Amino acid sequence: MARKFVSGVLAFAMVFGATAPVVFAEPVATEVVDQEANYLPSLEKNEVTMSKDDTVTIKINDIGTADVTATYDKTAFSYTYIKSSKTIVLTALKDVAAKTDIALKIGTVAGENYATTDLKLTVKPVASTGTLNTSDVAKATTQYVGLTSSYNFYYEKDGKEVAPKNVTWKVTTVGSDTLDITKETVTTAKGEAVKVTIKGLKKTTNDTKPTIKFDIDGKTVEVKDIVVKDPTSIAALTMKQDKKNIETSTGVATIVTQAYVINEYGDLAAKDDQELVWSVNGKVTTIGEIVNDAKGNKLYSTSFGGSKGIVKFTAYQDGTYEIAAADQAATQKASVKVTATSTVAYSTNNLYIAKSKTDLTKAGQSANVKPGTTIDFGALNYATIDDNSDKHLMADLSGWTVKFAVDNTKYASIDAKTGKFTVLGENDPDIAAALKNGGSANVKVTVTYTKSGSTTQTLDYDVKITKADATARKLTVTDGSTTATSEYTKDSTSGKWSATPSTKAVNKILTVGGSTTFTAKVVDENGFADSVGQGMIWYIQNDDNADKTVYATVVNGKVTGLVESAGKASLIGVSTADPDLQVEVKLYIMGAQATATPTATPTATPSATPTATATTAPTTAPATKTGKVTASSLRVRETPVNGTVVGKLAKGTAVTILETKDGWYKVTAGSLTGWVSGEYVELTTPSTTETAKTTANLKLRKTAKTGSVITTMPKGSKVEVLEKGTEWSKVKYNGKTGFASNAYLEFEEDAVG
C-alpha cells in the first residue's frame, strides 16, 4: 500500500515528542502538511456474494480526491465509481458462476503525493442451497371458486431469501380445469421468492379432490386433497335470543339466526333470509305450526319474525326447549335453550329496571343531568329478577302498573303516567340560585311498581342537576406576553383528565435577576369557569433529573431567574381543582450580558466626567463583531460541537459575536445566547483585516480539524484572516472561505515580531 511522503526531519520531531511542528525554511516542495499525514486507501469490504441483478455499494476509505478505475468482465458486471461519496456500485448482469476478482486501481493526484495503489474485490456466487420454504403451501387445502391463495417458495440462507431456479407443477386426480395456477418472481424484504397463485375454477366433490405436485429445483412437494367450495354455501351460523326464561302464558322468545357466506374478498359476510332447517328438542319443525303433546295439548308454536332468520318461539307448557337451526347440508348448526315456567317469582328486594336488555340501572343510582334536559324514566321498560341476567319486558310482567313522582317540583317536573322528567332551564331563578350556591340541585324520583294491588316495589333515583358535566377542559397560563395552553379530555370510565395531542408548551426567556408573574384559568367546554376552582400550585422542575442546580424560584406564580439555565428549567402549574390538569412553560434563563446596552453609560451621565468618558470609552470597549446566519435554520448550542441545543436562528438573522473557539462562535441574538458553527455565519463587521502566509502546502477545510478539504493552498500563499482562533483560523483564499491550521500560518504580527 502506498503511503504519502513525510520528511525525515519531521518524523524525527514526532518520534522525540516535539509538541510543535518543525518548520524548515526550505521544506520539500511537494509535501502537504496537516493532521492527515498518510493516505492508505482500502475497501470497506473486500469480498461480496452476488447473483444476477444483485447490486452492492462499497466505500473506499482514505482515498482523498483520487480517481478509481477497475478491470473486470463487462459481460458479467456493470461498474460505477461515485466520486462524491467515494463509493463503487457493482451490479451482477448474470449469475456469478465462480469466484471472480475485480482489480481496482487508485490513481495519483497532483499535490497529494501517493503512489498508484492496487486493490482487489472478490465476488462469489450465491449458493443455491439452504432451507427451502414449503410450509405455506401445505396449508393450501381449501379454495373457493373465483378466489385465490398465494404462496412463496424460497431458500433461506444467512438471513437472505433466494428464489428457486425452477418451479413446475402438475395437477392430478381431476382435470387441470379445476384449478388455475400461475407463478411470478417477486421481491421480498429479504430478497427474492417465487410466488405461486392458486385460483379455484369450479366446485369439487368429496370424490374428486385434486392433488398438486410441485417440482422445486428437483425437490417434490405434494399438496393433497384440495377442496374447492362454492362461496355461496354457508360458512358459519350463529344464534341468539332475547330471553332465556319466559312465562308460559304470555312469554315469547325471539330467536335470531344469522348465516354467513364467503364473499369475493374471502371475508365472512352476512346473508339474510337463508333457507334453514329448524328443530325443537331434536324434532324438525315447520315454521308457523302449533305443536301438540301426546295428549293433544298445545306444547309450543313458532312463527317468522320478519325474515327467515328470525323466529318467535312460544311455549305453552313448563320445560326446557332447545331450538336449533342448520343449513340444508347440516354442515353448519347452531342452537339455544329457553326455559318456560307457569309463574315467575318477583323478589321485592332484587328487582332492577333498565333502558335496554344490556344496559341495567340499579335502584338508588344517581343520574346527572343539565338544566333544560329531559329524562325518560318511562323508557325503563325492562325488568330483571334476582341475578341481573334474566330480563323481561315490563309488558311481560302481567298485572304490574307503574307510577312516577318527584319529591321536589321546584327544579323539575314529571308526568306520572309517561315518566317524562323535565328539568327547568338554566335561566329559571330557582335553578340559577341552586347552581350558584352549591353548583348543583338534587331531586328524588320515585318509581312505583304495583301488581294486582297487593305487591309494591318502589325504586328511588337521586337526580343531580349540574351546571355543566364537562368532558373537556382547557388550562391556560399567561404573563401577558407568553401564553401556554393545555387541552384535556375526561375519560368517562376512570374520570381522569388527559392531555390531547393539541397540548402546546411555550418557551419563556428571562434574564438572571429578572422576574415575571403567571396567572392561570381553567374553563370547561361550555365556557363555564365559576364552578371550577382556579387555585394553582406552582413549582420549578429541572429537565435533567440529575441536575440539582436551582435556576429559578417561584412564589404564587412569580418566577425569578437566579442562574443562567441553558434550557434546564421548567415552570409547572398544577390546578388545585384537579391535579390531573397541568401545564408546562420551558424557561430559558440568560445571563445579563445578553440584554446589555453598550451606550447606556455615556447617555445616562453626560455631565459627570465628560472628558473621562470621551477618552476612555473607545479604548476600553472591545470592537464589536457582528454577522448574519447563512443556513436556513441554525442550531444554537449550550457548548460548542455537541452541546445541548437551546434554540434555533433563521436565515438572515443578525448576531453579535461574543467569543470564538476553533471555528465556533458564541453569539447573542435578542434574548438567545449560545454557540453556533462559524461555517454558517457571514461576518458583516469583521475586526481589522489581517493577512497571513502559508509556510507549507496547506489544506483549506470546510470546518476545523476534520472537515472536508476545499482546496490545497501552495506554500507562500497569502490569505485573509477572517477570524483568528487558538489552533485553527477562518481564512479566505482565492474567493474560497474555510479553516486552516495555525501551525502552518505565519501571521503579520508574527512576521513583524
Structure description:
With 753 residues, the chain is mainly β. The two termini are 44 Å apart. Mean pLDDT is 75; it is low at 1-38, 344-351, 354-364, 385-389 and 593-623. The strands form 17 sheets. Strands 19, 21, 22, 25, 26 and 27 form a six-stranded antiparallel β-sheet that branches. Strands 9, 11, 12, 14 and 15 form a five-stranded antiparallel β-sheet that branches. Strands 20-29-28-23-24 form a five-stranded mixed β-sheet, with no helix packed on it. Helices cover 5% and strands 48% of the residues. The chain is built from five helices and 65 strands.
A few lines on this structure:
By secondary structure, the protein is mostly beta strands. The strands form 17 sheets. Strands 19, 21, 22, 25, 26 and 27 form a six-stranded antiparallel beta sheet that branches. Strands 9, 11, 12, 14 and 15 form a five-stranded antiparallel beta sheet that branches. It has a five-stranded mixed beta sheet with strand order 20-29-28-23-24, with no helix packed on it.
